[in-house]
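Review box. Two proteins, two foldings.
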Amino acid sequence: MDKTRLEELLAVAVRDGKCPEDVMRAAEEGWHVQTGAVARADLLRSYRRRLGRTQEGSTLKEQTQRLVSFLEESSDEELMMIGATGDSGGYEAFLADAREERILFWMNMFSR
C-alpha cells in the first residue's frame, strides 16, 4: 500500500469515527507503510492473554479491551494489519479488511 492509498483510507476512517483527525494530519507529513495479513483468531488469542497481564485501570488495559471486543465482534477471519512509520518518527497501526478497502480499527496502543 502506498502513502496516497493510506491517506484515502484514513480520510474515510476519520469521517466514520474510527480514528481521530490528528492521525490523518500526521499521515500528511509522510509515512512509510507496511501491510500484512493476520488471522483474527491469532490476534484474539494474543490480546486476550495480554489482557491478563495488563494493569487494572490502566489506559493500555482499556485500549486492549476495546481491541479484543472489536475482534470478538468481527466476522472477518483474515484482516490486514497496516503499520505506518512517519518521516518524523511517529508510528500508527490499523486493522483493515483483507482487501484493504477500509480501516476497521485504529490500534491506538501502538501510537507514538
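Next protein.
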Amino acid sequence: MNLSSYIFKKLKDKGLKIVDLAIFLNLPQGSVSTWKKRNTDPPVKYISQIALFLDISVEELLAHTSSDQPNDAIFNEYYQKLDAEQTHHVVSLMEDLTNI
C-alpha cells in the first residue's frame, strides 16, 4: 500500500472526508482528490500536517504501521526520493520534533 492509499484508508476508518482534509490543509478539495484519483503521494511539505489531522505520528503515516519501532527501510525509501530542498525540510521538521 502506498502513502496515498494509506491516507485515504485512514480517512475512511476515521469517518472523515477528502473535503475535511482539504480544509485542514487550506487546499482546494480538487488538489486532495487528485492524490486519490491518480494514486499519487502528497507533497512532502504536507506530511506532518496530514499526520496531525489523522492523529497519528509521521512515522506511522510514512511506515503505514502503528509500531513503536521505526521502520527504517520504509523511511529510507521515501527519504532517498527527496531532492535537496525537501531533504532540508524533512531534517528541519525532525529537529523541531525532537525539541517538543
